[in-house]
Protein: 4-diphosphocytidyl-2C-methyl-D-erythritol kinase
Organism: Brachybacterium ginsengisoli
Amino acid sequence: MSSAPPSAAVQPVVLALAPPAPGLSRGASVPSLERLGGSLLIDRLLSTLHGAGLPAPLVLAGTSAHPALRRTLPRSLQVLEAPGGRREALRTALEHSGAELLLLHDAERALTPGEVVREVLGALHEEDDAVVPVVTMTDSVKEVRADGLRNIDRTTLSGLQSPRLVRRSLLEEVLATEGSGEDPVDIGAFDEIRSALERGAQVRTVHGSHAGFAVQDRLSLWQAQISLGLARDTSHRHGLARRS
């Protein structure tokens, strides 16, 4: 039986950690400050979280992005600097919130539909440690082996998206057992859900959305414009792959 928590009992955490990428307009210091259809990506995300009945989120940003996010977002929001990558950002979130449930949302996945957020919130069972939305893999995936490349069956794979509803106890355990050092250039190396699964945690999955891809470079920004009807899809002319 589902034991879905009241939305007010959940602490949303927005992780604005993706580095700037070539091709983003106006040299945005973080992809979530890119403007799309008249609105900043992060404003779209904040509106979605508010529409799900959630309280104000904590916003965690890397050192270079923190000043711009602090200037841009309302003073009523806590915008915290989190140097050192994803692990340190999650540790900072735990230090600033006593909530037993945290909803982790990558800021660059700002087009995630509200329906996905509500489904994640409503899917938690007593025996679950976390809930995460996933999408099926559509691109070819290969394994690199000593004797060459091997195709992997895509039906056995899923792509993890946002938001992730995680129990505090699980997050504390994962962070306590992970190394404290993290290469700031490779902020994508650590993933709390993958680490939890490696430790045998009970992670429930729900259907994600192909609209919930990460907008973090020129190609994904173009795909976001297409999804909102702001640009034409000509990817078939160039053999481009869609992001998940």
Observations:
- The chain has one domain: 9-237.
- Residues 27 and 122 are 38 Å apart (CA to CA).
- The first helix runs from residue 41 to 51.
- Residues 152-157, 181-187, 236-240 have pLDDT under 50 and may be disordered.
